Amino acid sequence: MGIRTGAQYLEALKSRKPEVWLNGKIVESILDEPYFNQPALEIAKLYDMQHEPAYQEDLTVVCEETGERMATSFLMPHNYEDIMKRSKAFEVVARQTFGLMGRTPDFLNTVVTSLAQNSWFLRKYNEDWATNIENYYKHLRDNDIFLTHAIVNPQNDRSKNSHEQADQFTHLGVVEERAEGIIVRGAKMLATLAALTDEVIIYSFPGFAPGDERYALAFAVPIDVKGLKIICREPVQDGTRSTFDHPLASRYEEMDALLVFEDVLVPWDKVFLYNNVEAANLLYPMTGIAEQPAHQSGVRGYIKLKFAVEVACKVADSIGADQYLHVQRDLGELIQNTEVIRSLLRTAEREYTITEQGEARLNPVVLETIRGMMPDMYPRTIEVMQAIGAGGLLMMPTEADFLSEELRPTIDRHYGGRAGIDAEARMKIFKLAWDLCGEAFGMRALQYERYYTGDPVRKRAIFYNKYKKDHALDLANAILAKEDTVKEPQTN
Ligand SMILES: Cc1cc2nc3c(=O)[nH]c(=O)nc-3n(C[C@H](O)[C@H](O)[C@H](O)COP(=O)(O)OP(=O)(O)OC[C@H]3O[C@@H](n4cnc5c(N)ncnc54)[C@H](O)[C@@H]3O)c2cc1C
Ligand SMILES: O=C(O)Cc1ccc(O)c(O)c1
Predict the structure, then answer these.
(1) How far is the CA of 399 from the CAs of 233, 248, 320, 406, in angstroms?
(2) Is the CB of 152 under 6 A from ligand 1?
(3) Rounded to the nearest whole angstrom, what is the distance from the C-alpha of residue 76 to the centroid of ligand 1?
(4) For residues 331 and 316, is the Cβ–Cβ distance under 8 A?
(5) What is the position in ligand 2's atom list of the atom closest to the CA of 152?
């Protein structure tokens, strides 16, 4: 089949009925649900762009195996040119959604592509796991499937491992083996966009201990598989708010969900790892499933940061506040932050290495530096935006107020900005800012940058420990090696 159109994606959504819970009810029809309709159209647009002449060369490549076009995010990177093709494709997608949708199809395409490119690792443990992931990759690539993923155990008792929780199936684990596959039970989080996807892949961050065998697993199932409950969080928009009042929240709501598996059958050919604590713990360090999606996340995060910084600049400019020195200082800092991330991305891409198996990977230290800095830089941007917009962020008439003939002249008189910025223009800018720095939509977007790649505290600590192990601290050691020992003062 090759690349899908938006219509084909929406048709597939219509043809299924996953068990999606929203506000205490099962959603009867995803596309008829106002909370989901606009975000689904935004995803459909990304599929359509694959066919548009302006984007096709960036978003797709011809698959060597099938001769058909496939999404560029399915391209297995072997050299710098492949890396940069993927980078461009990530950027085109991110620009379309202003970086606000983190789990667009390209994200998990990179995860599965990397798993398949590193099937040698799974083959060390089990021939079938390797064959299964290779076939799954081809299935996704050739049918242009949209995946969600859930790789974190729910927060029950973080001081205990999965097998030590009060209930053995609070966390997702295997109940039994059958001739046709494994039966899985328990929960996993935090599946972003689950309701709008075709299938789900489960794997885990490392951290398994002996005794956790039943939880050490990786597999994929269709999103409407029998026994899977998708429990959505409270929406950040009601699906009916106007694009004037909420230009971002009304478009880019990326619904997150807890996945609860109630005795779901996973056929053997969709099992990628099972009952093996060592393999589950080594999956991240030994394959590229940290670095390859981190490339997508780095590019997307850069676009989101740049977008938020530009909105902050617009807020300041629209009310003449950027005439003040401290506002210029703060905005200068934000712009420099975007330049830091852009430069780090280019460095990580240029300083790629080729693995023994021929996979081109970005410099992991630089990539991890991006991931370490974004949880500080993005919230800082939001903080500056709040400080510059100040009370004006609360003093905004709604679209309905603008439409009132009686009120309109008053609005036009009192809500305008500096010379050249009328009330409507200023409110458009401030409403953009409020979606980012005040609304639940913006707080979720901020929480995403803090946590999408794991707990930033432990990630920085892991980074430090690995750096200390891998780097000789040569400069400090060079001076310490000089013979500056304590000497008794010379007395005559
Ligand atoms: C908006 C959003 C979207 C996301 N989308 C997805 C998605 O699509 N798919 C997916 O799989 N995941 C997704 N994630 C989940 C993400 O992977 C997790 O949130 C992340 O790994 C952090 O884990 P946690 O939330 O369970 O926090 P926890 O690990 O529970 O951390 C909570 C607090 O406890 C501390 N803590 C917990 N355990 C320890 C420990 N062992 N040692 C020291 N300190 C500890 C942490 O420092 C932190 O302060 C998303 C997250 C967010 C916020
Ligand atoms: O470690 C990384 O940054 C890559 C990454 C982040 C978040 C995920 O959910 C994931 O599957 C992979």
Answers:
(1) 27, 15, 24, 14
(2) yes
(3) 29
(4) yes
(5) 9
Rounded distance from Cα 107 to ligand 2 centre (Å): 9
Q: Is 290 in the pocket of ligand 2 (CB under 6 A)?
A: yes
- Residue 151 Cβ contacting ligand 2 at under 6 Å: yes
Asked if 243 and 251 touch (Cβ cutoff 8 Å), the reply is: yes
Which residue's CA is the closest to the ligand 1 atom numbered 39? 158
Per-residue model confidence (pLDDT) at position 447: 98
Token digits for 338? 């975007």
pLDDT band at 291 (very low <50, low <70, confident <90, very high): very high
pLDDT at 489 over 90: no
Quote the pTM value: 0.96
Measured from the CB, is residue 86 less than 6 Å from ligand 1? no
CB 171 within 8 A of CB 156: yes
Ligand 2 center from residue 70 Cα (angstroms): 23
**What is the per-residue pLDDT across 409-445, written as a single tens digit (0 to 9) for each?**
999 999 999 999 999 999 999 999 999 999 999 999 9
Dist. CA 377–CA 337, nearest whole Å:
7
For 171-208, b/e burial (b = at least 16 CB within 10 A) is bbbbbeeeeebbbbbbbbbbbbbbbbbbbbbbbbbeeb
Which residues face 252 on adjacent strands?
none
Structure tokens at 452: 């999408």
Residue 83 structure tokens: 């890396």
pLDDT digits (tens, 9 = 90+) for 149-182: 999 999 999 999 999 999 999 999 999 999 999 9
**ipTM (interface predicted TM):** 0.96
Tell me how far the alpha carbon of residue 454 lies from the centroid of ligand 1, in angstroms.
5
Beta carbons within 8 Å of 360's beta carbon, 6+ residues apart: 77, 78, 79, 80, 82, 83, 352, 353, 354
- Fill in the amino acid letter for 261: F
Q: How do strand 228-232 and strand 257-267 relate by DSSP bridges?
A: antiparallel
Q: Is 158 in the pocket of ligand 1 (CB under 6 A)?
A: yes
Mutate to test the pocket of ligand 2, among 193, 259, 299, 453 (most ligand atoms within 8 A of CB): 453
pLDDT tens-digit profile of 180-194?
999 999 999 999 999
* Residue 456 CB burial class (10 angstroms; 0-12, 13-18, ≥19): middle
To 5 degrees, how large is the angle CA 65–CA 67–CA 69? 110
293 lines ligand 2 (CB under 6 A): yes
